[in-house]
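Supplementary notes for students who missed Thursday's class. We covered one full example, reproduced here. Read the sequence, then the structure, then the short commentary at the end.
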Amino acid sequence: MGNSVGNLQDYWDAIEQYDHLQGGSIWDWIDQGIEKITPEGEKYWGYGGDFGDTFHDGNFCINGLVLPDRNVTPKLLEVKKVYQNIGFRGVDLDAGKVEIKNKFFFTDLDEFKFVWRLFEDGKELQGGMLPALEMRPGESKILLLHYKQPVIKPGSEYWLQMSAHLKEDTPWASKGYEVAAEQIKLPWFKAAAPIDTEDLPPISMEEIDDKVFITGKDFKIEFDKTSGMLCSYLYQGEELIKTGLKPNFWRAPTDNDFGNKMDQRCAVWKEASSVQELKDVQVKMISSSAIELNFHYFLPAVRSDLKAAYKVLGNGDIIVTTELEIGEGELPELPRFGMRMQIPVVYNKVKWYGRGPHENYCDRKTSTFVGHYKSRVEDLYVPYISPQENGTRTDIRWAALSDDEGSGLLLAGMDLLSFSALRYTIEDLTQESRGTKHTIDLTERDLIEVCVDLKQMGVGGDNSWGARPHPQYTLPPQNYVFSFR
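Structure (token representation):
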């Protein structure tokens, strides 16, 4: 249902390990919605209760892998990847040795063309094709790829991608269609040299009443000491933000969340996202090119402390560190741990280096490879029939939001980040209960809401009437800290 199909790869790993185990069967194929049109002519998909019916099960018929018009969803792409019948595994990657396994029961691999590509930080450096593989069902072979180790750049990542494609047209797909793919990280790395902040341009600070103004070459930043918020970031006279970063622990509940009562069980974290009592403010000049602001909050809903630190550097960078210190007493799991902000809608061009191109979550990301991607903000949105959390990308190294001229904001993780940018707020996507909103109830706002998270809980998918995300994909109530720039 909705944003779902989490942990399918975990099931498939077990199914492939044990000969007598089967499963991973999915109910249902299609969202069983019926087209409706508003008096204004806007199309949407109706479900139980939308047709004058009083005896119904709401949107419980909206439980498919594809939309009612058969359009593809990110969860379908995950199923395709998990179900693929060709396996790829690194054996000795320095020497170029990989293993390919034919998981088909009746198909020889000579029907497919195999391609390999080597990437550095998302840029293709080398590539090639394998000779025809005659491998009967169930067979495995170790093959040698003739790639050369490049000169390793400090701080760069290297990836091997392999894929299998149809050699000829078939009744179900055209020649060249990708039937299987895998990405394998190569064991090559050299640490980047740290940057000496003393070498950055000088900045100045002025405190006027409850405001802190920091000025540097081409930029001016303003903080509010009564809220601990970043109020303004002017770059060459252009405002980059509408509402500054605020600590956030809540997501718009998914269908599965409603099914396991996350909206009720974890409601204290929703309150903690909105009620944050500022207890202490510290502002200090560290050097001529670095200023640090520390804000200490108490979160009464969860009896916990939160610290937000902003280190402003002379080149205009702000290093943001958020630390949660859990208090005493029992608490439920966190839906997410991160920060949210709003920026002008003009910055609707998105580029990122991380998992993509489609939506992914910590328990549903095997179909998304690490690489460089670009999109419009409007296209990051996934139109689940009943609105809910959507559009997140995980394992983000950096993400940039810019206008048509390329001006805007860059977010870079000290840790791997989870990231989303939508024309809707969390509140817009939140329903009172499951199946109480439709896509027509959403109106694009004149802003972009950006969420930057250390992690968000998985979407789950065992069922939609009680099962929670698996423990390894949840955020237990404990201390957390993360940083980004």
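Commentary. The two ends are 35 Å apart (CA to CA). The mean pLDDT is 96. If anything here is unclear, bring it to office hours.
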